[in-house]
Every structure is written in C-alpha cells, then in structure tokens.
Amino acid sequence: MSVDLHMHSNASDGQLPPEALPELCAQNGVKLMSLTDHDTMAGTKAAEAAAKRLGIAFIPGIEFSTLWGGTGIHVVGLGLDPESPGIAGFVAGTQMKRVERGRAMDENFARVGIHGALEGALHYAENSTSLSRTHFALWLLEKGHVKNYQEAFDKYLKPGRPGYARVEWPATVDAVRFIREEGGVAVLAHPGRYEFSAEWMSDQLLEDFKAAGGEAIEVTSGSQSRATDIIFAQKARDMGFLASTGSDWHSPRSARPSPGMQPALPKDLTPVWVKFGYPRDMD
C-alpha cells in the first residue's frame, strides 16, 4: 500500500523516533501516512516535519485506548490538532491510568516471583505516561523469562495471564464522540483482533461505533488476519463505513508488516483519506 494510517513511534510503544518513521515509509513507497501513537500526539510535529521533507503527505493521528463490553477497543482519531487543549485534557486521564496499570502489573509479577518488572519496563519507555505492555514484554525478553516477544504476551501479558492488569479506559462511544467534537474522523482499529465472549458482540460494537459517529474501520491491518480483512471489507460494504488501512507497525521484532506493506484495500471501497481531500487511488 502507498498509504499507511496506523503506526507507532517511541513516543508511545514503537521503536523508532517520530522523525525516523517517515524515512522508513519513504523506503517502502508510502505516499500518505499517519503517526497514531497510543494516547499521545507528542511525536506528531516531528513526524509531520520529516514527512514533509520527504514529500510524504501526512494526516495527524492518535490511537485512543477505550473500553466496550468489557473489552479493550482501540479507536484511531485522524485529522486532529496535536496542540488542542481538548486532546491534552482527554488523554491526561488515560495516561495516568497507564501509570497506575504499570504499578498493578508490577505487583502481579511479584506475586509469581518476578521482581523489578516496573523498573525494567520503564527503562524501555520514553516516559511513564506512555508505559505499555510492550515495554514489559521487552523487559521479560531481556531477562530471559520468555524466549521471544510474542511469548511474553501469550504467557504473561494477555487477559487472564499472571502479569495482566485490567484498566477502566474511557468508553468507546465517548472517545468517538470526542473525536467528532474535535473535528476528526473516528476509525475502529483492527476490528478483527478483538476477542468477544459471544459472536453477536462484534456486530454490536460496529453498530454502537457508527451510532456514536464512527465513520471508518480498518479493513486491512497488519495486526489482524487476512481472513478477517475479507470479513470486515464486507462489513464496510454492508454498513456503509469508509475503509482505512494500516500496518500497526511498532518495530522489526514483531511479525507485523513494515509500514505500507499491509495488504491493499479492495478497490470498490471508499478510502477514508478522501475525507481529507486526497484521491481514492494514491498509487
């Protein structure tokens, strides 16, 4: 794809600095990008300036941590102002929850005989307000508690595992409404990745998301399977969603595709970037 509207820098839990990501995008032929760090837009200006130097079009973005039906749901906000006081206020509470979750995870690890997890994870984070499970995974790998990055999640960091700590993120519908109030476009990130207790919940999430003002879903994503790409392409057709796409790239240690290397969108779907004045076909 020549478009990638979902990737991360070390302003949250990615590996590269914001200004380095556009260079990787340029190498991969990306013509339109968005930096969508978790609950922060701290790296937006640096990434946008670097993209401009390289001739890459840029849409400011962020990935909000939210909660729906007891499940953590990620909502990408595109076209937002990184200097908006409203955004700073909205994410302040979420960032504090990240700090609190880190402490709870540290206590959980201590209960199973693994000590120093919080201190170790913070070593990998730019700051405590960006602390994520990724940082804990890197520390677990460094200390030899796991053999690879994915095992850290499978063994310790997923819901129900010893190191996991539940967080009461903002409600998904509240985040969607907030994005609209700020003049942005709400995109449901990697909809095929969520695990629900009942099949009907996935469709209900889409219905609630749309009713709150959500306009697009990620039809192709580096963090969901190709089978689910097909399913959600049809959901986009049936429910009238715009289509978005993103690698969800964090670092080379992940099996996810490099920026712009995720599958292309089906040609019959209307891409979300037309909302920002870009042509349907960016190739």
Defining key terms:
283 residues; alpha/beta; TIM Barrel; DNA polymerase, domain 1; 2 domains; 5-stranded mixed sheet; 3-stranded parallel sheet; 9 helices; Pol/histidinol_Pase-like; 5'-3' DNA exonuclease activity; 5'-3' RNA exonuclease activity; PHP_domain
Q: Overall 3D geometry?
A: globular
Range of strand content:
5-15%
CATH architecture of the largest domain: Alpha-Beta Barrel
The largest β sheet comes out as: 5 strands, mixed
What's the total count of β strands?
Answer: 8
Q: What is the residue-averaged pLDDT? A: 95
Helical/strand content category? alpha/beta
**Pattern of helices and strands:** EHEHEEEHHHHHEHEHE
CATH topology group of the largest domain: TIM Barrel
How many individual helices? Answer: 9
- The amount of helix comes to 25-40%
The CATH top-level class label of the largest domain: Alpha Beta
| Poorly predicted segments | none
Radius of gyration: 18 Å
**CATH homologous superfamily caption of the largest domain:** Metal-dependent hydrolases
In total, how many domains does the architecture comprise? 2
Pfam families: PHP
Region (Disordered): 1-20, 245-264
InterPro entries: PHP_dom, PHP_domain, Pol/His_phosphatase_N, Pol/histidinol_Pase-like
Protein name: PHP domain-containing protein
